[in-house]
Amino acid sequence: MSPAGDEWRRPDDLSVAVVEEVQHREDAGRRIELDVVSAQVKTASVLAGLQAEGSTEVVEPEPSRDHTERMLEALRAPVTRVDERTTRIETGAPTPFELDVPGDPSSAALFAVAACITPGSAIVIEDVCLNPRRLGFVEVLRSMGARIVAESTGERLGEPVGRLEVEASPLVGTTIVPDEGMIDEIPVLAVAAAFADGLTEIRGIAELRVKESDRINTIQQELAQMGVGVETKPDALTIRGGKPRPTMFKSHGDHRIALAAAVAANAMPGESTVRGWHSVAVSYPGFADDLGTVAGGSGS
After folding, report:
1. DSSP character for 117?
2. Does 184 qualify as catalytic in the annotation?
3. Is 123 found in the same domain as 39?
4. In terms of residue numbers, what domain contains 119?
5. Residues 151 and 243 in one domain
6. Predicted confidence (pLDDT) per residue in 63-120, tens digit
7. Which of 89, 119, 135 is the last residue in one of the domains?
8. Across the strands, what pairs with 165?
């Protein structure tokens, strides 16, 4: 879904527009001030700047994920972070490299929440990216009382890499105000809130209205299916934790909703089903098998 009107464009569309602007300009020293906080738009601008003449500065309204800058700096590309919001790029290219890509923090968050809310569970998630701008979910879970430890074991192309150790623990409600690096984890954190004691308020999430589904509404619908009380606002959710019950979930064609529903289903006794499971192919097609393996059952 998208807002009505002719002015709104998805970040992917903005990326294309920025690339075209940088690659086709003739003047040097261009400063690009982004209107949205989006690592995708910033990355498009940075990569285009490497092919443009002269210097390019990319300025964000707020800091976003910095995987691209870390990698390019490690590869000795002419990329300099002036401050948290400004990146300067000169004409040039990175050096050749080989990389074993570490695990995705958003995928790790699924297993971290699953371990927190499933009685008797404990898990060690190895070889995961521990980029500080991607670990907001760890701090949120800690604020809810989770026993979770992040341990760095090294660095790979500028990214800290390590393990997460998580144990089942009683959770309590909290207040969550996510940044851009944590927005994808909101559906599974909402599941954690459903199993927590007390109220959890999640604020500043209007961006969720324009994802693969209107995630504020679809989170509300799926938590309600479990008997969990949820109030919605244009940019917020308030979740009253309790004792969720098994149910028939719907993915709404949204991989994050389907994955979060599976985490909830795994923690409840009895049988639950997630309809529209094919949507998980967007980000984690093997999740059911991996969850089945760590849970000691089949992945089907």
Report:
1. H
2. yes
3. no
4. 105-294
5. yes
6. 998 999 999 999 999 999 999 999 999 999 999 999 999 999 999 999 999 999 999 9
7. 89
8. 124, 149
